[in-house]
Amino acid sequence: MEAECRKSKFDPGPGLKSMTRTITAQGGGAKYSFEGIAEDGSSVSYSFVSNYDGEDSTFTGAGPHGADTIALKLVDAHKTEGTYKKGGKEVGKVTAEVSKDGKVATVKSKGKTADGKEWSNETVYDKQ
Asked: What is the pLDDT, as a whole number, of residue 50?
C-alpha cells in the first residue's frame, strides 16, 4: 500500500512526501517493509517481522521516531495495536486499521520525543 501523503497529517512536521508499506505473510505473522521519501528529500527505509504476540520485534533501519523495537497485537481481522520502544522504554503507540474492502489502511501513532515533546501522526495508505 502506498501512502497518500496529502491525506496524511504529521504534527509536528516535517512529514513524508511518499511512503510505500508492504506487508508479507511470514510464518505465524508478517514482515512489514517501509520505503519512502521524507519532506526534506531524504530516504526513509525500515522493516520488522511481527508474530502479533505483543513481543518486541526489532527494526531493521531507522524505526519511526527513533524507536528500535515495536510490539504488535491483532485486535481483529482489520486492526492492530502496538507500542514503539527505544532501549526498552515506551516512546509511542500505534494503531493500524484496514478498511473492510481492504483498499485503505489508516495508521495513527502518537508519543513523546526524548525531550518530552508530543508528536502525533496519521498516515493514510491506498492499495495500489
From this structure: 96
Q: What is the rounded distance in angstroms from the CA atom of residue 22 to the CA atom of residue 11? A: 24
| Beta partners for residue 4, in sequence order | none
Long-range contacts of 33-41 (CB under 8 A, 24+ apart): 36/3, 38/14, 39/13, 39/14, 39/15, 40/14, 41/17
Please report where in the chains the cell 495513527 appears, as a residue.
108
Cell of 26: 511470514
Classify the C-alpha dihedral 74-21-104-18 as positive or negative. Answer: positive
Report d(CA 61, CA 48) in Å as an integer.
9
In the chain the domains, ranked by start, together with CATH numbers, are 2-126 (2.40.128)
Residue pLDDT, tens place only, 30-51:
999 999 999 999 999 999 999 9
What does the angle CA 10 – CA 117 – CA 68 come to, to the nearest 5 degrees?
75
Q: Are 107 and 95 in contact (CB under 8 A)?
A: yes
What's this model's pTM, rounded to 2 decimal places?
A: 0.89
Cα–Cα distance, 47 to 75 (Å, whole number): 21
Interior CA angle at 113 toward 70 and 13, to 5°? 100
